[in-house]
Specification:
Elements (H helix, E strand, L loop, with lengths): L5 H9 L16 H15 L3 H13 L5 H13 L3 H14 L4 H13 L1
Helix pairs in contact: 1-2, 2-3, 3-4, 4-5, 4-6
């Protein structure tokens, strides 16, 4: 059984590959985390960023740190005009995952903003 991250499910939702009524997609081995991550993807896709933040915080608190999750955190906090929280996610991304694509995108974003 393939395990998907919340970001991967979000991408599948955006591409129309997954129905928004299908809640049986395994995202992590823990069923509660799977539901939370699916709801995170759905809330983000629907523009409900406060709800997406709640699900994202739950996922990050469960130790689900990944470059994709932290990049999504930066995007959600940016949509909520919360620069302090976005910076906290950016710091975690750069500290824990300095090599992935998301960190490179963040470095470019910060360079362009300067």
């Amino acid at each position: 059984m393939k395990i998907l991250t919340a970001f991967a499910v979000y991408c599948l939702l955006c591409q129309g590959c997954v129905s928004t009524t299908n809640s049986s997609i395994p995202l992590q081995s823990d069923a509660d985390a799977a539901v939370a991550n699916l709801n995170l993807g759905l809330a983000h896709q629907q523009g409900n960023f406060l709800q997406a933040r709640a699900f994202m915080q739950r996922s990050l608190a469960s130790g689900a740190d990944s470059p994709e999750m932290l990049w999504l955190c930066i995007q959600i906090e940016g949509q909520l005009s919360s620069p302090t929280q976005a910076q906290a996610c950016a710091t975690r991304l750069k500290g824990q995952f300095p090599e992935p694509v998301q960190a490179s995108q963040l470095f470019e974003l910060e360079r362009d903003a300067a």
